[in-house]
Amino acid sequence: MAAILQSLLVIVLLSLIGQGMCQNCSTGDLLIQQNQTGTNVQSKPEFKVTVLNECPCLQANVKLGCDGFQTVEPIDPLALAKSGNGCLLINGSSMGPFSQVSFTYAWDTQFPFTPISSDINCN
């Protein structure tokens, strides 16, 4: 009986710790890295963008600020699609904890993507 109670206590404590970590998640946990690929598309350098979810929870409906974004290279709309004054990442699907999404674009200069919103789900 004592072993069962002890096990239940451990489960409750781990659950509370996990929820506490997720309550601190925000769009600030979306790390955006960009690098030139070394390829040129229509005489413009190509950039690879990687968005990493550093939160231990799911982040869905990730929207990046992309007002003024341009590219001569088509981007798969399932990876990044214009949505109002922002861009929706992976069609609004959830990014798992510590997962990443990448896409490429080509333009004269690197574009300063910034995370502007997401829905955080810790369940």
UniProtKB/TrEMBL annotation:
GO terms for biological process: cell fate determination. Residues 1-22 form the signal peptide. InterPro entries: TPD1. Keywords: Signal. It comes from the Eukaryota. This is Beta-1,3-N-Acetylglucosaminyltransferase family protein. It comes from Liquidambar formosana (Formosan gum).
